[in-house]
Design goal:
A hairpin with a 7-residue loop joins strand 8 and strand 9. The protein is globular. It is an alpha/beta fold and about 350 residues long. It has eleven helices and 14 strands. An eight-stranded parallel beta barrel has the order 1-4-5-7-10-11-12-14, surrounded by nine helices. Strands 2-3 form a two-stranded antiparallel ribbon. The longest helix has 27 residues.
Length: about 350
């Protein structure tokens, strides 16, 4: 199983205003990615937001900077809000990233859980579903062919024009899914890998999404079946108590701020502690606890990739770096060894 990280480059907020320097946050992000690469982690993802509390609205630009400071780690958006973007530009940007990185670029395409980008780029939220379906179709056509004939309802048609540059190899395109079963089925029918976000509730409740994805892929004749990634929040420290105590204030501040916009109930400490238990959604704890939880979820999902977001909040850079270090040096080797043993029947 591939192990990696993703981030939205959150800015700390006080009194409703960012108190972190976006330039410093981006420099810190580059250091986080560089450390992940040095430790041998497999994937680093950067998300897209168009809000004052996040530093990244252009993932491909940030990933290109990371490409020049890393050697092996795969670089993906997490996610690209394809519904409010132009698939031609997304393809061109990530094809360029693929060339710069020596074939390490990936696209994680999503519909967007935040909606600020829709009015920003002139799209109607009433077209939320059709925008994503149409633009995903076009993105895949662009991946398949240098010259594309295509027409749709939400952008100008393409009449055999060429789209350049071409990537070093076929760009992997993942479909990001939160709680929409139709999205899981669509990804399966198209034979696309699925990134399933689990950031709340019991993980077992999400098993039907994995089953829908695989069943749809199997019925569509895809062999081998497309991969599955589980993407979750987490934080690692030397002890579970330290991990909970250090991360809760930052996580609660951010989740409650967003929760006020969306009508969520406030996050309480007991809720956070419960989510860190074996059957909870978050990977917060000591290295051993996180190891056990990754392996527990692998028994449930049989997934091919696990990505964790340590920067929810944002915690101080030094603490994020320590969490990445523990993930790379103490968690990843044990998980890989155990899964290799299980695969070999040991």
């Amino acid at each position: 199983m591939e192990l990696g990280l993703y981030t939205f480059a959150e800015l700390q907020i006080e009194a409703g205003k960012p108190n972190a320097d976006p330039a410093k946050r981006l420099r810190d992000l580059l250091e986080e990615a560089e450390l992940a690469d040095q430790l041998g982690l497999d994937v680093f993802g950067v998300g897209e937001h168009h809000r004052p509390d996040f530093a990244v609205s252009a993932p491909a630009v940030v990933l290109a900077a990371i490409a020049e400071r890393t050697k092996q780690i795969r670089l993906t958006s997490a996610v690209s809000v394809l519904s409010s973007d132009d698939p031609v530009r997304v393809f061109e940007q990530f094809a360029t990233l693929d060339l710069l990185s020596g074939g390490r670029a990936e696209i994680m395409a999503g519909r967007g859980s935040f909606v600020e980008s829709f009015p920003l780029f002139g799209y109607d939220l009433e077209d939320y579903d059709s925008l994503f379906a149409e633009k995903l179709e076009l993105l895949l056509r662009l991946r398949e062919s240098e010259h594309v004939n295509w027409s749709g309802a939400h952008r100008a048609p393409l009449d055999g024009v060429g789209v350049y540059p071409r990537p070093q190899r076929e760009l992997p395109v993942w479909v990001a899914v939160g709680g929409n079963p139709e999205s899981a089925v669509r990804a399966g029918i198209l034979g696309l890998p699925m990134a399933l976000a689990i950031i709340g509730g019991l993980p077992e409740r999400f098993v039907p999404f994995a089953e829908l994805h695989r069943r749809a892929a199997r019925q569509a004749g895809h062999d081998p079946l497309p991969a599955l990634s589980i993407n979750s929040h987490g934080y690692i420290a030397e002890t579970s108590q330290q991990a909970l105590d250090e991360s809760f204030p930052a996580v609660a501040a951010m989740m409650n701020r967003i929760g006020r916009e969306r009508g969520w109930k406030p996050m309480l400490r007991q809720d956070y502690d419960a989510a860190a238990t074996r059957r909870g959604a978050n990977f917060v704890g000591s290295p051993q606890q996180v190891i056990e939880k990754i392996l527990f979820q692998h028994e449930i999902f049989g997934h091919d990739r696990f990505l964790v977001q340590f920067s929810v909040g944002t915690l101080p850079h030094a603490k994020i770096m320590r969490s990445i270090e523990l993930f790379g040096t103490e968690v990843a080797p044990v998980v890989r060894k155990e899964l290799a043993s299980r695969s070999a029947g040991g």
